[in-house]
Amino acid sequence: MKLREISLRYLRGQKKHTIMTIIAIITATAFMTVMLAAVSVYRAAALNVCREENGTYHVVFNGLDKDQLVSVRSMDIFSETQIYSVSSYTSSVDVDYGQMKSEDAQMEYLLLNGNPVNDVFLRFKAGELTMLPKNMNTVFEGRLPEKDGEIVLSAQSTYLWGYPELGDTVTARLVTCKAKSDTPRSVDTPQSVEGIPQYLSEAFDITDVTDISFTVVGFSENSNIVDYSDTRLKSYSKNTDNLLARFSDKTNDLYWDMHYAFKDAGYEIDDFSYGMNQELLDLEGKGVTAKFSQAVFFGIVYLVILFLMFCVRMVIDNAFEISSRERIKQFGLLKAVGASNKQVFSLVVWEAVYLAVPGVIIGILLGTGCAAGLFGIVKNLPYLSDSSANFDMRDMLVFDIKPYVYISSAVIGVLWVVISAVSTGMRSIRSSPVEAMNAAGKRDRVRIPKHPSGLEKGRSFIAAYSALSIKRNKKRYIITMVSMVMSIVLFTTFSYGAQLANDKITAEYEENRSPSDFSVQTYSLTADGIHESIDKMASSGCFENIAYDCVLKFYMDNDTLKINQGNDAYESGGIAFAIHPVSRETFEKHIVPDSGISYDDLENSGSIIIDSVMKDKSGNVLYKITDSIPETFTANPFIDSMVYFLDPVTISTAGTYSTDLRTYFSCGGTCTAVMSESSYEKLVTAIGIDSSSSQVEYNGGNYTLFSRTIYADAVSGAEAEARNYLTRNFYNSFTDNAADMAKAVSNLGIVKTVGYFAVLIISLIAAVNIVNIISSNVMGRTSELAMLRACGMSDKQLHKLILSESLIYAALASFSSLLVTEAAVFVIQIPFKTHFHDLDMDDFGLTMSAAAPLKYILIAAAVSFIVAAAASYVPARRIIKSPIVENIRNSENQ
User: Fold this and answer.
1) In principle, which of 116, 140, 714, 791 could form an S-S bond with 91, CB 3.0–4.6 Å?
2) Nearest-angstrom CA–CA distance, 222 and 120
3) How far apart are alpha carbons 321 and 318 in whole angstroms?
4) Residues whose CB falls within 8 Å of the CB of residue 49, separated by 6 or more in sequence, listed in order
């Protein structure tokens, strides 16, 4: 018996069924290919990000001497090596003088402006050190040093060198010391060397003093850099040569391969100081640990994909289920003429293979095309450029599809089709010829219901017959309902989840949104120093809307301001009170006094004006704090970090104000007031605060009460120059609010994109499921519907009958989905209501409600009705166009 020919003959004879099944396979395979392609692109992007942030080296060896460098670089376990040096300087004289004297060792100090400094210098050849992270070997302004005498200064060290500009010459002094011949630190007459700090002269014998100079050619965020050939900044005490290396492809067990390689060279690997770039090794799959990490990652990925594929499998299963029911009689006849169960099984498998091969191939090609299209859309999303402060995320994205994507899609796709075909056809395969023939004869027989039907009750024939048709085939009903409910629930879950993520990130964005592009916090500048810094920023041409602010916090009794009661924030009887200084420009531009007081009057009186309306961080009014402001009140300044209360001070008031600047909002349960700058400085002095350090002495300790903050916006088009200026002059003291906000917007955009993409995929799965289920149900009842037409049912009535059945399915599925979703929301909140009494969903920034998912269920239900109606129309038209006799004859011949 030529089973393959029988399979091919059947598939050719049932072209419509064959095409529908292949379309289902194409859909499932394309979906899987898109998901695996997304994983492949994600891993490629993660690898690029890791290389950008951590460097491309696999292992770094620290503190090698020249012989060790030569030996390690010659080992065949490494495919590439690069050298750089680190010179470190210290200002401390706390050393082992005895050892220093016995070894006749020397110490070298770097003096800037006459004082030893703590600083580190990288030494390497420009263009020859590519394995380090880019933030360590690149500059944000200027270029790398190319010869002796050139230097790149790190932003955190520029203040030590006097804040130089590009092209400036900076000078330093190198002081070489050795241990004194007598006991250190007990010298009666200190050695006097001009320009050398006394404590160095007391601790050491000064053997050499060298003045050196450099031309500043660039600025780096993290490292001072000089050329590797520089002979002056090689600290005697702390100068080390380091080696970066990448493992060769043949290296597998990294530690033991290094162990044997070093042993062959006469060393012990454990005697060396080295570090692994483990994240990069994991992503590149090098080493035993990396292979285990990859196995765990891909195991989770394939479990998730198989779960999602289970939803798509309904499409394939339903196609084969219809085929199996239609061929019960054919299988019975084959068995009657001598075919064994094994041969019938082989027939089903061959049919599955013939359907799977073209379906899987086309599905992979279609999935790859869809993945490429989606990749192009994602890569061109504008907010990706702000997803990281150090690099453009769009540059990290590459359409890199690994072979496992196609292999996995092909293997899983073919196996899935074969399993679906076999699992749905096993009932027919195992049945005897007589049972198969009986099952075929009973296929369209209507069972007499136990209870009166809708027809007997006098209902509409169309409605009653539709309901009866659904009830009599429970298996078809269950498959259809499970598929549609799963589709609607998944759509609702993903949509609601995307909404929760969107709401959370949006709330965080609004809460943290800053009114200015940059803010600089300083603890050591006086008011005069602040204005000098502001003038320098303004003269740079990079900034506009420059202002400064600081805040003193007080605690006072509610009765003092006659706080409106009924607000939970004030039931404790006290209120926090914050006072800000404002400049004349800020006052006239942003502060609107309700009393009409001028800045001069405010300055002369030394009074404050109060924002008496409590707002949220977005500026929305919550409630009014007070209706009556006293002329004076007494409050205690307090140290916010320790909640220590200082002696009370008396403050005069001059009314209330309104403003459009969030900085001066009464917000977060704290009442806010403003006063003139000069009056603020007098208040600071009256409290006993040191204006230069912002500190006050209390109980034997010094505590910081406030910091002075400069706010500024970047001039349009000069954002990069503004960041470079602040990096050079306020390295660790400024916040790039614009970048932070751009990153928040980027994160929000990414969440929306991922959420909408997931919803789109789920929607497509749901739509395909519904279309396939409904159309298969209709096509499976061709003879039954032909008999109804033969009994006088018009084409319009037939359309209405099929539409009614489809809409009943959609209605029942929507209602069931509503019950499932609401039950899930209720179950999720049970632990918080029964066990975690002190914890609420709001603590996670999430607000769940039973009503929120309703709109998504309604959307899914509406789409289900539309798709169900559309899915019923095409097969109904096909049945109507076919002759009644032909439909009945074809059914009997199956």
Assistant:
1) 116
2) 10
3) 5
4) 388, 391, 396
